[in-house]
């Protein structure tokens, strides 16, 4: 289930990138964030509760939920219910969490790919935080970083895993 969520997360991030670049409407991106965020939270809870990935189930499930909650919060912001600064501060939390997860992937699980992906995500979360919490004019670079990240760390790894492959 987690590989399928990775593909969906890649899709929502791709759409969010075009919102940041001014090429998609925020209200139109809101439902995509809400639906995929909800799916992510459910899959994260299921992964952790069923121990479907063995000893890493809780660790991976929590990270999947951090991203799912991110997309749910973004959907609320896009629908006009939340101030962007609050979302930005959540992104600060997300950036720190991704650095901790990178350390865990490298040290406890010896997963180079997931460790590198988590570092990339820490950077992307920091870019979103800069835009939203600190009012930096980084929308364009954040949008392009989101496009890259949607494929390099989400859609392509999810595809590889769905095809029965593995990541280093």
Please give a structural write-up:
With 168 residues, the protein is mainly alpha-helical. The protein has a single domain (2-162), classed as Serine Threonine Protein Phosphatase 5, Tetratricopeptide repeat. It contains 6 helices and no strands. The protein has helices at residues 2-20, 26-50, 57-78, 84-107, 112-132, 139-162. Helix 1 (2-20) runs antiparallel to helix 2 (26-50), helix 1 (2-20) runs parallel beside helix 3 (57-78) and helix 2 runs antiparallel to helix 3 (57-78). The longest helix has 25 residues, at 26-50. It is globular, with a radius of gyration of 15 Å. The model has no long low-confidence stretch (mean pLDDT 96).
Beta percentage is under 5%
Portion in helices: over 70%
Question: Which outline best applies?
Answer: globular
Report mean pLDDT, rounded to a whole number: 96
Low-confidence stretches: none
Query: Remind me, CATH topology?
Result: Serine Threonine Protein Phosphatase 5, Tetratricopeptide repeat
The named CATH superfamily: AmiS/UreI transporter
CATH architecture: Alpha Horseshoe
Order of helices and strands: HHHHHH
Q: Would you state the CATH class? A: Mainly Alpha
> How far from one another are the termini?
19 Å
DSSP helical segment count? 6
β-strand number: 0
